[in-house]
Amino acid sequence: MHLIFSIIALLFIGHGVHMHLCLWSPMQRGDFDISTPGAHPCYRKIGPCGNINSTSSSPRTSLVAGSKYNVGFQQNLNHYYTNFPGALDISFAVGLNPSENDFHVLHSFSDYNAMNQITQTNFSIEVNLPNQPCDECVLRVRYLSNNLDEDDHGTVFHQCSDIKLTQSLLNTLKKEKENKIQLIENINRQRQEDPHDCCVPESYTNAFFHIIPAIDYQSEGIIYYDQKARQMRVTASVNGGRGNTTVDGLFDMWMNFTSGMQYYYNHHSGTCDLYGLDFWNDWCFGNKYNQSEDFVAADVTCKSPFGPSQRCNQWQNGEFIFETFASSECLPSSITRPSGEKINYIQGKTDPISPSIFVPNPICLKQKKVKHASPRWMRFHF
Ligand SMILES: *[C@@H]1O[C@H](CO)[C@@H](O)[C@H](O)[C@H]1NC(C)=O
Ligand SMILES: *[C@@H]1O[C@H](CO)[C@@H](O)[C@H](O)[C@H]1NC(C)=O
Ligand SMILES: *[C@@H]1O[C@H](CO)[C@@H](O)[C@H](O)[C@H]1NC(C)=O
Ligand SMILES: *[C@@H]1O[C@H](CO)[C@@H](O)[C@H](O)[C@H]1NC(C)=O
Ligand SMILES: *[C@@H]1O[C@H](CO)[C@@H](O)[C@H](O)[C@H]1NC(C)=O
Fold first, then answer.
1. N or C terminus of the chain: which is more exposed, having fewer CB within 10 Å?
2. Which DSSP state fits 230?
């Protein structure tokens, strides 16, 4: 009984070593012959590629990355185990001579019962090729016999094909798009991280001249900015400041970002209007501080003739050019536009600002009627 079993087992082993497989789409490494059943080039047992190594000058089939491809191969002898069916699989690895662990399976299917060992069965199996181009990669077909008694260089049969995967047109376009997005992200990151981006000192006072040539507009005044107190005050004299209107008057504005109130006081008419403020905005330059300003240049000639220095750092937002003096202090120099409009800043002071500067004129405090406020402001304050 035992002897009979052994003989049967030996017969199976004998059949096992005759399993044959050849691959032509894409063409296998080394010799190829399927003219007869049991052809020698179809018998390659040693992994991962049947003991045939590739070189960079080996024949190589060019396929398109990410495309569908019909792998063509022949089971040159069939050896089906009823109780322990084997499998065939198609796998892929990147590299000239990848190792076993580099391969990943693209498709796998069970052996079939041909009822006759001497059966040459062609297979054409569609696989999705990996989407990543590679210059040197391997497409492999295996026969996994599952025969634990198999002792001829293991139980697996290998056939490797050297291929390269090229970029498809779609992939090329996709890649180009990705590159462009990457480029923009890099530019934005650089801009976000530009070391010149800066904010004016926490406590800052300076005078300004505002000129709009097209309408003969000219105003001058003082800006008080207290970052910690969340207070600002701006005085402005428009076109000489001798009248009562917005184009010829003298004005004082108090901005309290805690109460959300901005008073607009007309010196000559003695009237005061109340407005609702939006949110506090630090006086800063550059995208790093969410000013939507791209850094343009460091240490260029200032557009403004005034100031402690002739050299400026420069940002741009649309047609607006912002400049600060090229020092570590971040002192505003000017805002200019191609139309000729410009605001020049002079006499910057970083001394602490007296709290009384921010106390509105008593006439203003009587004003309760809000001339304009954003809906959000209304919700907050009423
Ligand atoms: C193929 O390369 C491997 C790894 O370098 C080596 O062990 C093996 O002997 C080579 N086989 C042949 C046939 O050159
Ligand atoms: C199998 O494919 C080979 C190669 O294309 C071909 O020569 C042969 O006729 C095919 N055999 C069968 C049975 O289709
Ligand atoms: C700003 O508003 C807050 C809240 O109403 C108030 O307490 C504070 O006194 C105001 N500051 C000035 C300088 O008026
Ligand atoms: C400005 O308004 C005040 C108060 O109403 C008035 O006395 C003065 O004449 C006005 N000045 C001008 C230039 O209109
Ligand atoms: C800029 O905006 C981002 C996103 O809204 C925010 O997370 C960040 O705190 C802001 N930075 C500054 C300096 O306000």
1. N
2. T
Residue 203 dihedral angles phi and psi, to the nearest 5°: -125, 115
- Which of 244, 246, 247 most suits a substitution to test ligand 4, by most atoms within 8 Å of the C-beta? 244
- 37-58 pLDDT per residue, tens: 768 899 898 999 999 999 999 9
Domain ranges of the chain: 12-169, 198-381
What is 12-169's CATH number, 3.40.50.620, 3.40.50.2300, 2.70.50.50, 2.40.100.10?
2.70.50.50
Torsion angle (degrees, nearest 10) of CA 60, 62, 66, 67: -120
Report residue 17 as tokens: 């070593």
Separation of 289 CA from ligand 5 center, angstroms?
7
Give the bridge partners for 224, in sequence order: 205, 233
34 CA closest ligand 2 atom index: 3
Model confidence pLDDT, tens digit, residues 210-240? 998 988 889 999 999 999 999 999 999 999 9
Residue owning the nearest CA to atom 6 of ligand 5: 290
> Domain 198-381 falls in which CATH fold?
outer membrane lipoprotein receptor (LolB), chain A (2.50.20)
